[in-house]
Amino acid sequence: xxxDKNKITAISVSAVVILGIxxxxxxxxxxxxxxxxxxxxxxxxxxxxxxxDSATQGVIPSIxxxxxxxxxxxxxxxxxKTNPFDSVKTNPFQ
Length: 94
Known about the structure:
single chain, mainly alpha, 55% helix, 94 residues
């Protein structure tokens, strides 16, 4: 009777191991088939860029000279008015 229990235990353990190996093989095969390839990732990046470009088109205002409020600012620098000899073409100390 002791020999029958050992035999049944050995058969059931080997059956579980064999079933585990077969299930692991099929799981591994399915996992490899589902992994994305490089072209599909690149196409996803291109699609995202296309969506971003179309979403921002016409939303951002054009930036030109009208966007700069200091284009026609007055000259308030005191250093530009300190030299009284700006208009003199020759050196008066020669």
